[in-house]
Amino acid sequence: MSVNGITDVTQAYDNKNTSKATKTTKVAQENSAVNTKQKESEATSAAVYEKTEQTVDKKKIYQKDTATIDRLMAESEKRSSQMRDLVEKMLLKQGQTVNDSTDIYSLLREGKVQVDPETRVQAQADIAEDGYWGVNKTSDRLVSFAMALSGSDPSKADDMIAAVKKGFEAATKAWGGDLPQISKDTLDATIKKLDSWKSSLQSEFTSQAGASKVAE
Fold this sequence. Notes:
This protein is mainly α. The chain folds into 2 domains: about 1-60; about 65-70 and about 115-215, no CATH class. It contains 7 helices and no strands. The chain has helices spanning about 5-60, 65-95, 105-110, 115-125, 135-150, 155-175, 180-215. Helix 5 (about 135-150) packs across helix 7.
């Protein structure tokens, strides 16, 4: 065999090996690309899953505070019963007959109930600024009741404000005329506190929404 023949055979052999090596490298690159895409897909899926979990975790569930509602209702019924019993005792002392049909509100409104000095002092203390039936504490109880009833849900704030107004309208009707000034002041204070509560909830909701978008 001539030198040229040997050279040709050698080149052919080298070309064959080179071709095989090229194919092997190409297959390895393709496999690597597939593995990379698969890992990226898995990473993306994991990120989406984690983000979904975080979104679900951050979603607040609003529930009524039944314990607070029951406590406030029981306390209110007890105090109202005590007040009625007190008025009935004063009426009996005056020789008046008291039964279920007796319109105590009408008698109080018209000033037909004679109040003894001791009861008058206690009543004045109860309706004082820091008294149980005073503007501050009464409005605080109404706001606490509204918050407990709504579960502090910001979307229910307007409903609670409307309910309080409706309640005072019913009280006015039961009273049989304009409510005393202390009642009107209590309504104003309650609405003001509820509006403040509503604003604070909206600000908190806006802040949380902004933080959520930044996190995304």
